[in-house]
Amino acid sequence: MDLVSELQAGMGQVQSESPELMAAFVQMDQAAYVEGELERKYKELIGIGIALAVRCEYCMNIHVKNALAEGATREEILEAAAVAVAFGGSPAMAYLSTTLMKALDAFE
Questions:
Q1: CA-only gyration radius of the chain, Å
Q2: Mean pLDDT value across the chain
Q3: Are 16 and 23 in contact (CB under 8 A)?
Q4: Are 84 and 49 in contact (CB under 8 A)?
Q5: Within the chain, where are the H helices?
Q6: What Cα–Cα distance (Å) separates residue 50 from each residue in 25, 82, 91?
Q7: Would you state the pLDDT for residue 2?
Q8: Which pLDDT score is estimated for 3?
Q9: What does the pLDDT average to over 10-28?
Q10: Alpha-carbon separation of residue 70 from 21, 73, 97 (angstroms)
Q11: Rounded to whole angstroms, how far apart are CA atoms 51 and 64?
């Protein structure tokens, strides 16, 4: 998907120009997704919900891709999205209907 490639390229540029910032971000991000009481699949589903609520297209794509890789089903992803729509209203529904559905179709 183009958004994922665009994000990876941009993060590569940040890595070369600001390696300390990228190192801190990667360490924080990896710590958040370590399996603990919650399996990584569920953390990715939470990420999908938050991405929809805050309207981050890049995040939606990454978390859909990761959730599917962790064994989440389309139905589980759509249920997580439904919770986000309950919190995010019309803007979250718009992103669910467009960006998230395209990501599901692209990564399934």
A1: 14
A2: 95
A3: no
A4: yes
A5: 2-17, 19-32, 40-54, 57-69, 74-95, 101-107
A6: 18, 11, 13
A7: 86
A8: 86
A9: 96
A10: 27, 9, 23
A11: 10
pLDDT exceeds 70 at position 76: yes
CB 40 within 8 A of CB 33: yes
What are the tokens at 40? 């990584």
* Residue 12 burial by Cβ neighbours in a 10 Å radius (0-12, 13-18, 19+): exposed
At 46, list the tokens: 């939470």
32/39 Cα distance (integer angstroms): 11
Mean pLDDT of 47-58: 96
Say whether pLDDT at 28 is over 80.
yes
Residue 53 · residue 88 · CB < 8 Å? yes
**What's the pLDDT at 1?**
56
Question: Residues for the chain: how many in total?
Answer: 108
